[in-house]
Design a protein that fits this description.
By secondary structure, the chain is an alpha+beta fold. It is built from 2 helices and 7 strands, in the order H-E-E-E-E-E-E-E-H.
Length: about 150
């Protein structure tokens, strides 16, 4: 093998290694991704049973019902469609009707979204970016101009 062939084989082997490492990295990151859906988008989404997703929107007025213990049922809406959500745990202090939330979890066999975490806004001007963008696209959310 000539010197030029050795150098070329080392370069090809290095590129193959980098390609394999990049492919494995992107595959692993894709498996951990949790995509964001608005309630109206769920009708067209192809979700696998038990697939973890992020669901965002506004807490629908009049739907918050506290159950036994720390179980809470409520609906998340984007004003077009609503999704029933159940959550067992302590809700954020600022969780209330009409406010933006992002819930993480999966749909149960009965079609109710079972959340294992609930994220709520943290002050009067904040809305989670994904929720605000989705609601702005539908013409529902108008950003306040006060500071």
């Amino acid at each position: 093998m000539t010197r030029k062939q050795k150098r070329l084989s080392v370069i090809v082997a290095g590129l193959a290694f980098l390609g394999a490492a990049s492919g494995l990295t992107f595959y692993a990151l894709g498996q951990k991704a949790s995509y964001f859906y608005m309630p109206a988008e769920l009708a067209t989404a192809s979700l696998q049973p038990g697939q973890r997703i992020r669901l965002g929107g506004l807490v629908e007025s009049g739907t918050v019902m506290r159950g036994n213990g720390a179980t809470v049922a409520f609906s998340v809406t984007d004003t077009q469609k609503s999704v029933k959500v159940t959550y067992t745990g302590i809700l954020p202090d600022l969780f209330r009707e009409g406010q933006g939330v992002i819930t993480e979890g999966a749909f149960g066999p009965d079609g109710v979204f079972v959340a294992d975490s609930v994220l709520a806004k943290h002050d009067e001007r904040y809305m989670p970016k994904e929720v605000a963008d989705g609601l702005k696209a539908k013409g529902v959310w108008v950003e306040s101009k006060s500071q």
